[in-house]
Amino acid sequence: RSSDLSIHDDPKMLHSVKMGHIQSNIEYKKDYEKAKTKFSSPLDMIPVTMAKKAQAIASNIDYKHLLHKYFYPPDSISVALAKKAYTLQSDIDYKSDLNSWVKGSGWVPLGSLEVEKVKRATGILNEKKYRQHPDTIKFTSIEDAPIVVQSKINQAQRSDIVYKAAGEERLHKYTLPHDLPEFIQARVNAYNLSDNYYKVGLDRKS
């Protein structure tokens, strides 16, 4: 009966299935996908040998291999010297004073660089000083700054007092020539009106 037939009984259907497998990309790359994740290298390969030697050198097992075993008596001089040397080289004994009583004790080296830096940083981060009114801040200007020097020069040039100082000084100075008639007449009048000169003859007679 036709219902009992399979694909393998029909040559055309069987040919179509085989052609489909041949043209299938999955079937084409099946063996490649299985083999691409497998890696094998010969044991006597130079990189493998070098890696084994490097691992043996870096391994801590052979580094700590004990060469011999022997015992020293506890009262041996070498043991005492070794203990003393280990004590001197011990970082725990070196820091024993620091960890016992120095650490945690309050001590401030006043005037040191770190203290001054902390003070400066505290002043910068002070919220009260940051928000104070500008009128309360003391202002100091550099006397020899170019802007200040130019301002002084401009002020001196625009000053009316400085501008008239030379004229006022010449205005209050007046000199008369010695041979001026008015000056000679004033001296004669002063001579005639002088009470001291009037009494000169009387003082001479007495």
H/I helix tally: 15
Oligomer classification: single chain
Counted beta strands: 0
- Poorly predicted ranges (pLDDT <50, ≥5 residues)? none
SSE series:
HHHHHHHHHHHHHHH
Q: Kindly name the structural category.
A: mainly alpha
Helical proportion? 55-70%
End-to-end separation in angstroms reads 195 Å
Please compute the radius of gyration using only Cα atoms: 59 Å
In percent, how much strand structure appears in the residues? under 5%
Main sheet?
none
Shape descriptor: elongated
What is the arithmetic mean of pLDDT?
A: 78
In short:
By secondary structure, the protein is an all-alpha fold. It has helices spanning 11-23, 25-28, 30-36, 46-58, 60-63, 77-89, 91-94, 96-102, 113-125, 127-130, 146-158, 160-171, 181-193, 195-198, 200-205.
Strand and helix layout:
Blueprint: H1 11-23, H2 25-28, H3 30-36, H4 46-58, H5 60-63, H6 77-89, H7 91-94, H8 96-102, H9 113-125, H10 127-130, H11 146-158, H12 160-171, H13 181-193, H14 195-198, H15 200-205
Task: Explain how this protein is built.
With 206 residues, this protein is mainly alpha-helical. 63% of the residues lie in helices and 0% in strands. It has 15 helices and no strands. It is elongated, with a radius of gyration of 59 Å. The protein starts with 10 loop residues before the first helix and ends with a helix.
Key terms:
mainly alpha, elongated, 206 residues
